[in-house]
């Protein structure tokens, strides 16, 4: 993706648009009670009703590299003298290896990209203020669902995320 500038507050200027990338750390919905699930769903409804601006939700899956985890397991296994522990480690290692071979082990990243067009009716300062207002509205409404919203605000983070969106090696 081509961009013209990344500001110190994490806002991206691309052509006539100002963009902001937010990372969402999701709530573990499956572990919630039925009452909590209903509450979460109602909060999501409120999110979609109140956030009536240009945004895009992106979900990115990446296959996990478990080589460090495997070497740690081997090291721990070699340090144990108890045969029961060694058996447990070997079974776990086998299970994770099979899971990884079936391409089932992946990490998911969730992002929301918000956009504000720079036009005659607003200037750069207003566009940035609007983006920040959108960010706080998203943060407030999604936190009610149990999610954490992280502001992606360093140039390095933004460039890494943009690269991963457009590089097929990162996509499962």
Question: How would a textbook summarize the main sheet?
Answer: 6 strands, antiparallel
* Uncertain segments: none
Computed structural class = alpha+beta
**SSE pattern, N- to C-terminal:** EEEHEHHEHEH
Q: What fraction of the residues are assigned to beta strands by DSSP? A: 15-25%
Number of distinct beta strands: 6
Number of helices: 5
Mean pLDDT: 81
Distance between the termini: 20 Å
3D shape = elongated
The helical percent reads 40-55%
**Rg (C-alpha, Å):** 21 Å
Keywords summarizing the entry:
alpha+beta; 5 helices; six-stranded antiparallel beta sheet; 23% strand; 6 strands; single chain; 172 residues; elongated
Give a description of the structure.
The chain is α+β, with helices and mostly antiparallel strands. The chain is 47% helix and 23% strand. The protein has 5 helices and 6 strands; from the N terminus they run βββαβααβαβα. Strands 1, 2, 3, 4, 5 and 6 form a 6-stranded antiparallel beta sheet that branches. A hairpin with a 4-residue loop joins β1 and β2. The longest helix is centred in the C-terminal third of the chain and has 20 residues. The mean pLDDT is 81.
Structure summary:
The protein has 172 residues and is α+β, with helices and mostly antiparallel strands. 47% of the residues lie in helices and 23% in strands. The chain has helices at residues 34-50, 67-79, 83-101, 124-143, 155-166; strands spanning 5-6, 11-14, 17-25, 55-63, 106-117, 148-151.
